[in-house]
Write a structure and sequence with these properties.
The complex is a heterodimer of chains A (304) and B (493). By secondary structure, chain A is α/β, with parallel strands linked by helices. In chain A, 38% of the residues lie in helices and 27% in strands. In chain A, the strands form 3 sheets. A 6-stranded mixed beta sheet of chain A has the order 6-7-8-3-9-10, with helices on both faces. Chain A has a 4-stranded antiparallel beta sheet with strand order 2-1-4-5. Chain B is 81% helix and 0% strand. Chain B is mainly α and 493 residues long. In chain B, α4 runs parallel beside α7, α12 crosses α19 and α14 packs across α17. The N and C termini of chain B lie far apart (72 Å). At the A-B interface, α2 and α3 of A face α1, α5 and α11 of B.
């Protein structure tokens, strides 16, 4: 549904996006991470046919962004970096205006607009002037604007910025429900936890290039090495370490715990458990040590 | 587009217009001046009309002065509220950019033309309605006093007010889409305010001295200007530039580098294994065999415009020859002598010295002036400047024919000897001057207006120095040394 081939954007001598090639399928959420000025917003603007690529091409919902800009924009819902609301308007008027521009009739517009505002827990916003809205409400209103015409492709730049945790969860739930409706969703964010929660795949962009791409698990494995397992024993036992050492090289250990690294946990872990229980050593837990996406991100950015 | 698509297309434009208008109606900074100007000026003009009427009657016994003043007063009551449209228009794009609401709008499926039309209508609608209300209010006051203006005058003022408001708005929208801040747009607005103020003053003088019928010509001029400004705005409108440009920085180094890049050309034939002579010759060969034709190809449309203008000047010359025939005996070519060229021409103070340098200097100055005027008039004044002498030649040729001389012989002796070089030089220089102005309306593909203009300037500079001046120099020498001899040989005593 979104296909990027060598997408490049130059502003004079400065290359903002440099040969980005990737594709995002229907029903997939791709989170684009990267430091400020990495090229995320420029990429999104090219996908929304606001900016023209200098080289390469982007096909969005079956239309080339260069030659069919209007058709692309018709099928894209875009949440911009700033909510960009008309603050003198009321919520309902605002959604009504964008609905008309997207070719919706007044009734559909009202139905969908009210439903979206209710979904985001701000039904009262329909009749309120947007100048009175809090930052989070403005962001939610902007998201409602992007979703109003039920676009098959969503480009969301920092969708939960400035939101309280409850609102952020509402929005995340909304994004996840959109995935179930087979939409294509590209989320640009600095919120790594959020990216890990909602995204099927992560693309890390640095100086206009995609430097890492994959599922969160793939990226962690690729960039942080095999998963680290932690074994917690029921009591301190001397023989446990030697038993574990038969299968893997322990990374660290204490009187009642052992950590080890393995690229094949599905085969190694049962063997270790069997050996320990066979020797009468009680095991309380055996699990993978959580590794954050932040570690992956920092590793990639620092390496670059 | 079928009817339904047209309807949808227009509906989207009106949606944008209505949104902007309703936004303006909620802004007291817009509503207050419009309201005050609309209500205050009809009353003021009414008082002024009556007091002027009384004053003229009491002091000088003059009656009917109000009929001369009415058009001016009507113009004031219509134009003042309508002038607020400038303020609204200056904000259209750049104001939205500053308020960060532009990007969501640019991400909608509205086309550039729709955005542009919607914004222009939004800027002009409210102030124009206020202007009409002012005109109606003032007319009603006049009607109560039994001084109803003619329906033609009312139509003229209504159309003129609309055209003036549209000119201001379409120019302001161009500014608004090309600047990065409302402040910068306001600063540049003087380029709109000053010409429009001069125009309104000119209209006032014309109404007083020449009569109302001239207003129709001004209206035509304003409509043409509007068409050009809207075209310019549409051509320059660029979503990318609107979003991408962050600072209005004058980078002189970059300007110079771009100009120099366009000023240069490739030697021909190129290649490393060339003899010294060929190497030296390759630059002028490259210029005259490759670069000059390339520049002329780039200027093909401008050349066509100039040639059409010249054909038009022949019609103008013919028209004036019929309208203003020279008195009998005015043209006596048989009386031409050497003294005509040596003494008469030299003592005529408004003509340049009749020397090679004098003629050359005059022609160079004229063509440089054409370039300057062309830059500020979308190229139109450059063509007009070349049309004038040609219209005069055609005018004289007709008078010559009607005086019983052979017009072809006249042209062959008086004009052609030097004209054969001077005319192509003037056509080329004028075409390049047209490009200097036309670039603002239609920059070359894949170039910004700035780069397009620098290319036009570089093309003008190199052809002016490399082609036009040499041709003009040769023509000036012929004009001073050969043409008089031929004329005397043909007609002289």
């Amino acid at each position: 549904m979104i296909q990027l081939e060598g997408l490049t954007k130059r502003f004079g001598d400065f290359t903002a996006v440099d040969g980005v090639t990737l594709s995002i399928a229907a029903g997939e959420i791709l989170a684009m991470l990267g430091p400020n000025g990495a090229g995320k917003t420029t990429t999104v603007r090219m996908l929304a046919a606001i900016l023209q690529p200098s080289e390469g091409r982007a096909v969005v919902a079956g239309f080339d962004t260069r030659s069919d800009g209007i058709e692309v924009r018709r099928r894209v819902g875009m949440l911009t970096e700033q909510p960009g609301l008309y603050l003198r308007m009321r919520g309902g008027e605002y959604l009504g205006f964008f609905g008309r521009v997207y070719g919706l009739d007044a009734e559909t517009c009202q139905q969908r607009g009210r439903r979206l505002l209710e979904q985001f827990d701000m039904a009262e916003a329909w009749n309120r002037r947007m100048g009175e809205f809090s930052k989070g409400m403005r962001q939610k209103m902007a998201l409602a604007r992007a979703l109003l015409h039920e676009p098959p492709v969503l480009l969301l730049d920092e969708p939960t910025s400035a939101m309280d945790p409850y609102s952020a969860k509402l929005v995340r739930d909304a994004i996840l429900s959109l995935r179930d409706e087979r939409r294509v969703i590209l989320v640009c964010t600095h919120n790594l936890a959020e990216a890990e929660t909602v995204a099927d795949r992560i693309a890390i962009i640095r100086r206009g290039r995609i430097v890492a791409l994959g599922t969160p698990a793939e990226l962690k494995r690729e960039l942080l090495g095999p998963p680290v397992m932690e074994l917690r024993l029921a009591e301190a036992r001397d023989g446990a370490l030697s038993l574990v050492s038969r299968f893997v090289e322990p990374l660290a250990f204490g009187p009642d715990w052992i950590r080890y690294e393995t690229s094949q946990p599905e085969t190694v872990n049962p063997l270790i458990l069997r050996a320990l229980t066979g020797a009468g050593i009680g095991v309380v837990t055996l699990g993978e040590l959580p590794r954050s996406l932040e570690a992956v991100y920092l590793r990639v950015v620092e390496e670059q | 587009m079928n009817e339904r698509r047209w309807r949808d297309w227009l509906r989207e434009v009106f949606s944008l217009t209505w949104r902007e208008v309703s936004d303006s109606m909620r802004d007291w900074r817009i509503i207050a001046p419009i309201g005050i100007l609309t209500l205050f000026f009809p009353v003021l003009m009414n008082v002024l009309t009556r007091s002027t009427q009384n004053m003229f009657y009491e002091r000088w016994g003059v009656e009917g002065i109000e009929t001369r003043l009415l058009p001016l007063m009507l113009m004031v009551v219509g134009f003042f509220p309508a002038s607020v449209s400038l303020v609204i228009a200056l904000e259209t794009f750049v104001g939205e950019k500053e308020r960060q609401s532009l990007e969501p709008l640019l991400a909608t499926p509205l086309s550039d033309v729709q955005l542009y039309l919607g914004k222009i209508m939004a800027a002009v609608l409210l102030p124009l309605v206020a202007g009409f209300v002012g005109i109606v209010a003032y007319t009603l006051m006049l009607w109560r006093q039994g001084m109803l203006p003619s329906s033609e005058l009312l139509l003229q003022i209504t159309l003129l007010t609309s055209a003036e408001a549209l000119v201001m708005v379409s120019a302001a929208v161009v500014l608004s889409s090309q600047t990065t801040s409302v402040r910068a747009a306001n600063l540049l607005a003087s380029f709109i305010i000053i010409p429009v103020a001069l125009l309104v003053q000119g209209e006032s003088l014309i109404i007083l001295y020449a009569g109302n019928h001239v207003l129709w010509y001004i209206l035509i001029f304003l409509i043409v200007t509007n068409v050009m400004l809207v075209r310019m705005g549409l051509r320059l409108f660029n979503r990318e530039e609107l979003l991408g440009r962050e600072i209005d920085e004058l980078n002189l180094g970059n300007v110079w580098r771009t100009f120099r890049r366009h000023l240069g050309w490739q030697p021909w034939p190129s290649g490393s294994e060339r003899g010294l002579v060929l190497r030296c010759l390759s630059w002028p060969l490259g210029f005259y065999l490759r670069e000059v034709p390339a520049v002329l190809r780039r200027s093909a449309l401008a050349l066509a415009v100039v040639i059409i203008g010249l054909l038009g000047s022949a019609l103008v010359g013919w028209f004036f020859a019929r309208a203003l025939p020279a008195p009998a005996g005015f043209l006596n070519l048989d009386a031409i002598s050497e003294e005509t060229f040596t003494t008469s021409l030299s003592t005529t103070t408004w003509l340049p010295a009749f020397t090679t340098w004098g003629v050359l200097g005059n022609n160079v100055r004229s063509l440089l002036a054409a370039a300057l005027l062309g830059t500020f008039s979308f190229g139109a004044l450059a063509v007009a400047l070349l049309m004038a002498p040609l219209a005069i030649i055609v005018y004289v040729a007709f008078q010559v024919a009607w005086a019983g001389y052979d017009p072809l012989l006249f042209v062959l002796t008086f004009v052609m000897p030097h004209g054969i070089l001077e005319l192509p030089a003037a056509i080329i220089a004028t075409a390049l001057a047209v490009r200097l102005g036309a670039t603002f309306i239609a920059p070359p593909r894949n170039m910004t207006v700035g780069e397009g203009w620098l290319q036009a300037l570089a093309d003008f500079a190199k052809l002016f120095v490399g082609v036009v001046i040499p041709l003009l120099a040769a023509a000036a020498w012929i004009e001073v040394h050969i043409t008089p001899a031929l004329v005397i040989m043909t007609y002289g005593r």
